[in-house]
Structure formats: C-alpha cells, structure tokens
Amino acid sequence: MTYALAWPLQQGLYELLTTNAACQAFFGNRVHDAAPPFGPDAAAEGLYLTIGDEEVRDWSTGCDQGAEHFIRLDVHAPRQSYAEAKEAAAAVSDAVLTGPIQLARGALVNARFVDARTARDEAGQLRRIEMRFRIILEDTL
Fold first, then answer.
1. Of 101, 103, 114, 118, whose CA–CA distance to 19 is shortest?
2. How far apart are CA 129 and CA 42, in angstroms?
3. Tens-place pLDDT, residues 29-40
4. For residues 115 and 103, what is the distance between their CA atoms, to the nearest angstrom?
5. Lowest CB count within 10 Å: 46, 112, 124, 128, which one?
C-alpha cells in the first residue's frame, strides 16, 4: 500500500474541477480544501466546492503498489434551494467520472461514484451535497 498518491490525487482533482467548463460555470475559482470565510451576506458569495475527507485502503498486487481512495466532494449552496446545488453536483460528478484526472505521480485505474447525501446547516439557511467517489490509483514509481 502507499499513501503517496493522496496529494497528487487532490492536486489532480483541483486542476480538473477548476478547469472543467461546466464546473467553472458554477464555482469559478471557488474550489477549496476547507470552507472559506464569508462576509455578512453569505448568500451573495454563491456556490463553492470543497475537496473533503478521504479514506484510503490498500489496493496493491503482488508486484505493484496501489491505493483505493474514497474521497468526498461537497457542493455548498449558501441559498435556500437545492436546485442549483444539484445541477452543480451533477457537473462535478460528470467531471470526475469522465476526467481526465492528471496526476503528478501514479496512474488512474478506475473512478466510480459511491453515494451522495444532502444536508442543511443547523439554522436551515445553507445547503450542502456530499458526494463520495471511489478512485483507484496505481503507483508508477
């Protein structure tokens, strides 16, 4: 097993999601690895995407090292409707599944959608769509 592909995967996802035309239409440059600070009118800030939590498992063979990454991508909608957030989540899903995810190290073996769920903040003002993807990578070193 190797965890050495986690950072190249995050970089590759960031590059993909900030250059994909459909994702860019929804998020612009608002792709983060943590929620950004917002001003007093969060709804005016628009949608943003976070590259979230990750779980990694061994996916090695007898002669090659690899890892199975379960990674979460969250669409945050600082508005009261899920409509735009669901359209944006579909664009993210399409981008991840059709790629290409460019990696500084490793090779993509497979990318699959696992699941998604919607959530609201405690005040009921913000919406979030949490998507999980299973991405299998093989080390090329």
1. 101
2. 17
3. 899 988 776 655
4. 24
5. 124
Handedness of CA 117, 99, 77, 87 (dihedral sign): negative
Q: Which long-range contacts (CB under 8 A, 24 or more apart) does 104-107 make?
A: 104/8, 104/11, 104/12, 105/4, 105/5, 105/8, 105/139, 105/140, 105/141, 106/4, 106/5, 106/8, 106/9, 106/137, 106/138, 106/139, 106/140, 107/137, 107/138, 107/140
User: How is residue 53 written in tokens?
Assistant: 């939590």
Amino acid at the residue 16: L
Q: Tokens 């993807």 — which residue?
A: 133
134 and 86 Cβ atoms separated by less than 8 Å: no
- Pairing mode, strands 66-77 and 48-58: antiparallel
68-79 residue pLDDT tens: 999 999 999 877
Question: Per the structure block, which two tokens stand in for 137?
Answer: 């990578």
